[in-house]
Amino acid sequence: MLKFIKGNLENIDGVEVYPMISLMIFFIFFLVLFFWVFTAKKTHIAEVSNIPLEDDTVTENNTQL
Fold first, then answer.
1. Distance CA 43, CA 47 (A)
2. Is 3 helix (H, G, I), strand (E, B) or coil?
3. Which has the closest alpha carbon to 49: 37, 59, 60?
4. DSSP H or E stretch at residue 31
5. Which residues are CB-contacts of 15 (< 8 A; sequence separation ≥ 6)?
6. In angstroms, rounded to a whole number, what is the distance separating the alpha carbons of residues 25 and 30?
7. Nearest residue to 23 via CA among 13, 31, 11, 12
8. Percent of the chain beyond pLDDT 90?
9. Structural domain boundaries of the chain?
């Protein structure tokens, strides 16, 4: 299967730039995410981390149709 993909990609001019662009997007995304994690306010992190533990369930009326 790789020979079919490789054969088609050899005919495209400038195709070698796409892996570099995807690597840069991947790297920049995780660099920004890393920066956000270390600069986020501790109160916000604590508030968001407790969301799954809160018991704010909404009770619905059990009416039959």
1. 6
2. helix
3. 37
4. helix 17-39
5. 9
6. 9
7. 31
8. 28
9. 2-50
Chain centre to alpha carbon of residue 52: 20
Q: To which residue do tokens 């054969």 refer?
A: 7
Residue 3 · residue 9 · CB < 8 Å: no
| Cα 25 from Cα 21, distance rounded (Å) | 6
* Calpha distance 25→19 (Å, rounded): 10
The tokens of 22 are what?
């995807």
Q: How confident is the model at residue 24 (pLDDT cuts 50, 70, 90)?
A: very high
| Residues 26 and 32 sit within 8 Å (Cβ to Cβ) | no
Work out the average pLDDT over 29-44.
Answer: 92
With tokens 């039959």, the residue in question is 64
